[in-house]
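BART domain-containing protein
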Amino acid sequence: MAAVDHAYDVEDDLDLISPRMRMQKHEDWLISTSLEPLRDSFEDSSFQQLLHQFAAEHAQDFLALWPDGSHPLLWTLRHQEYKELFESQLEKTLADIGMTRDSFQSAMRHLQDVRASLGDMQADLDSFLKSLTAADEYNAFLQVMLTEAYKQQEAGLVSAAVPDSQQIEVTVPSGHGGYAAASVPVEYQGYQYDVPIPCGYSAGMSFHVSVVVPPPN
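Tokens:
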């Protein structure tokens, strides 16, 4: 019987792993040269100030909640305007780093496909995706706008001038850990309201919110 050759050749192993190593270097490069600048642009203080200004200017459109989960059409229009701020920031940053929209979308698809193998870079990808999709989530947008409306009402900067609205006090229930886009169901005069919890409020804290109470038929 011929002897089996068990000789170990390190070059064989390098040949096997080098494609993966080369791919990992490519993915690291994509994240450091593309995603990190994009994430930083969304977190930039001037862009954050722009978002704050938008919320402050349009808070009066969000002074009262409607029953049974219904929302005025204006809220949808404001959400579209809010998303356009993010879209403009994305386009500007892509131009600054010399990346086309097609290249960006291709890079995103690839990184999402290999997300599980990114190691420490996975957190960078997740952070970027959170920033990128922040504007698309309607409930998160609603929380931003209603939080600003609550603040302005508490400070006496605006008054709830919405017809048929009444102000009620809401206490954040136990178990709420301050996570984003959380809400609490409230019943008032036979109507159900889904009240978003303002940013920074935790269990036991109270805030005031105006709700629209439809007139009796």
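The domain at 11-212 is CATH 1.20.1520.10 (Adp-ribosylation factor-like protein 2-binding protein fold).
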